[in-house]
User: Fold these one by one.
Assistant:
Number 1:
Amino acid sequence: MTNKKILGIGSALVDIMTQIPDENILKELNLPKGSMTYVDAQTSVEIGKKLAYLGNQMASGGSAANTMSGLAQLGIEAGFLSKIGDDEVGRFFEKQMTETHVKPQMLKSATPSGRVQALVTADGERTFATCLGAAAEMCADDIRPELFEGWDVLYVEGYLVANPTMLDKAVTTAKAAGLKIAIDMASYNVVEESRDYFMQLIENYVDYVFANEQEAFALTGMESLQALDFLASHCEIAVVKVGAKGAYIKRGNEMVTIPPMKTNVIDTNGAGDMWAAGFMAGLVKGENLAKCGQMGAIVAANVIEVLGTKMDAERWGKIHEAITNL
């Protein structure tokens, strides 16, 4: 598999990031620390108003969109399929995607574009209040075979399990077009709510699975290494990331441990997305599992040293240098 093209599918969201000085703010807003909570448009606006005094940063976000941006920066041809509104937030999203060299395949809706209030606590942990808006309206009828023409891998964000009819159509259509399927499990609470559906997807369609230890436990009820064995028996490559302890990767009988990298944690937002970007970049370039994992670790280690999921040209230069030196 060399220099294949990867199409991401997920929610087109704009992250509105706010660093909060006090965790009590999360309690006041009824947002469990470290979780992702879906909110309606009105609640999203109210949260924005309550946090306005702290200032914020806007950036295109959404799990799969972040991964595609990372892949494009690593020289892989990447695209992104989603739905946006005809509004300022949607235009901002599409422009940012294009600027990071991702090919946006945006369907349009009359509903406002999706946005995420991302609250970052002093320890770098992030808590999301997500209003999907137009992104939630992508439906099975939107999924047409020609969307997958010319792509080799479909990369799915786990949050899409909330929309099973659309996701079923996407994975079956992509498989019929000869694509491999990768899925990142998104968030432990999402996995808990849709455990059986996740399992059915992995058993029937998915080739590459990315999970952190909480997500792997939510799915299998097993600790990291047992969960890794279980997942690897149901797909081609399984990855379980264990935070500060690094990551485990398994393909068939081959198992690799990726050591952690020392970093100065500012904001863990996007760490998993960028780990997947580094790993998938290595995989489509035909690298061995150890190098793929090291590439994932390098990109993730860099993104947690900045606020948000976007890195400047200087930092990407540093990443490219570190990968070259592997």
Note: The chain has one domain: 6-11+62-112+138-324.
Number 2:
Amino acid sequence: MKHILFLLSVMLIWGCSLTQKKPSRNLEREDGWLWTVSWHPNKDQVVVGGTQDTLRLFSTTNYQLLNNYLFEGTITKVKWHPTKHKLAISMQGEKSKTSIFNLDSNKRIALDSINDFGARAIGWNKTGKLLAVGDYDGFLTFFDEDGKRIKKISTNQKSIIGLDWHPTKDLVVAVGDKISIYDFNTDAIYPIEDRKEDVLMLCVAWHPSGIFFVTGDYGDFDKNHPPLLQFWSFEGKNIKTIKHSTSEFRDLKWSEDGTLLATASEKIRLWDKQGNLISEKSSPDLLWGVDWNKTGSKLITTDKKGSIVVWDKQLNKLNELKY
């Protein structure tokens, strides 16, 4: 099936649709796709990463580049620790290592037991004492904050593309070719029946209340299956399905107060917690990463051409970060 093949070949095509011609590695590196962005929870800083072999750290006070850090391979996701100045970084590529990176000491801890091709899903729990990595073999691997492996669990998925921890419980929702909720304390896995069409799910986020979560998927335009934004109850019941985007949903994030959901696709869009579209703004290129600042007054996006844009919550463009 098309998106099962996508899951197996994603390392080679760097996230392109299976209907597209496979680009060369050099061409993609020229494009400079920025897959991911994370706004520091306690500092005026953001990090971005993608196909450029570089993690970039910016100030959000003056929007200046603070530092470049070499990471060979594609940085697929970055997540700040909730209280400390260190990052969880998932990577893909034969020479790359998913790792924990302390920016104060410049110490990097490579995480073991990850698929040889890498991973695309990573995240800390609320306290930062647990780190989950979802890899391209469908396993969730858990580490402590110092990188010591705790356990590795099969989710019975072909691949895990996105994950998110519940805001108060040690539950992880993981998405790929389906949805799985894993209870860290009991080792129970709860599969959720998602859309009947064979599509790849790319991103997931719990609402800050913990009552429901939202998923975004790839769709399949060859089969007339549009990308869907779907709201799910804690128990896994579909609450709402939205057919609005003309491109896949690459990323989505809630503001900390839970009033607005930002989604990255062919447009930056803001939704309320009932799934009503509040505002949208077109982007010249497909957006891949999105995140909010601590107060929810600003958000930042990255795209497949390497642009980094800061917006206010009315989606007025405030600045474009240069590097």
Note: Residues 8 and 136 are 8 Å apart (CA to CA).
Number 3:
Amino acid sequence: MKLWQKNHQLNKEIETFTVENDFVLDQKLLKYDIKVNLAHAKMLNKINILSKTELEKIIKTLNQINKLAQKGKFKIKKEQEDVHTAIEEFLTKKLGNIGKKIHTGKSRNDQVMTDLLLYCKDELDMIKKSILDLIKELDAFSKKHSGIPMPGYTHMQKAMPYSVSEWILSFKEMLEDDIQSITQALSLIDKNPLGSAAGYGLPIEIDKQLTTNELGFKIPHKHALYVQNSHGKYEIAVLSAINQSMMTINKLSTDLLLFTTSEFNFFTLPDEFCTGSSIMPQKKNYDVLELVKGKTKLIQPKIFEISLLYSNLPSGYNRDLQLMKEPLMKGIEISKSVLKIINLVVKNLKPNKLALAKAMTSELYATEKALNLVKKGIPFRDAYKKLKN
């Protein structure tokens, strides 16, 4: 039974089109919807909609759902449409009229937004931890391989002397900036949407601060309508923050693909990280880096997809918003897989000291020679001309 069910059955083709795979995606939101219902039930008890006994029964049943979910035994059905219906149906089946009270003072609209923000907060925290782990790996690599010279390149040509340590630490500094983007996104979405209902508030007085505290949000949303109007803006903010680290990893993987070619041979990865060719016996392919590089580019299309869905929508809830869930979740999953692999790559990366030393050819020191002439009183432009050939 759908939460909005009328005295008619929905056309099956319409049902398939409007639900699509939303009920599958909602499995990721199950633990958050349980948490939201627990907080909401406590609030309903405080405003005397639920008695203490009724609250205890609801808490016990929600904990039962949680245990089933942890064992993979609580599945949302297509005909239920979403996680909210699945949980309310279970509560009603187990508790009868008590279960029917749980939807008092909330809508699927504010409930799904609350679920999504709780999900995003957890995912951003995990991504932030993975970035911090990568920063540690980069730092450890720089210390382990300090003092190894490496050519610096501009316009894909040798430019000036650099080092393996300085090269890798540049990515560490980039990621430290990227962490700030994650922190800012976390701060932006740290508002409790629950209590905004369908987008225009409620005709009964509720305790938003209670649910805010229970759910771990910093503050409640001030204006009910902004909750629905923020749908899309917040998803874009989350993916945009994640995309900063993906851009950094894209550059690192691109460098590594170049520097692991036989022409450079600056770095190597263990054989078990590489694939071969079905026709060429000699091949050692670093295609893990190609896939990392490729996957880092898949976040931006998700941002664009959500931006298109968000554009030209009037205020309030519109069903288009449902379509933002999939690109958001896919973008998050892609970034987590990329971070996991690039951490593994950096941990197992080895510099080839002989190849790097051989690459430190004389033209790299031209600028240093020009500046030595400047120290002797020769104008820089004259020193530059003297050495340019």
Note: The longest strand covers residues 157-163.
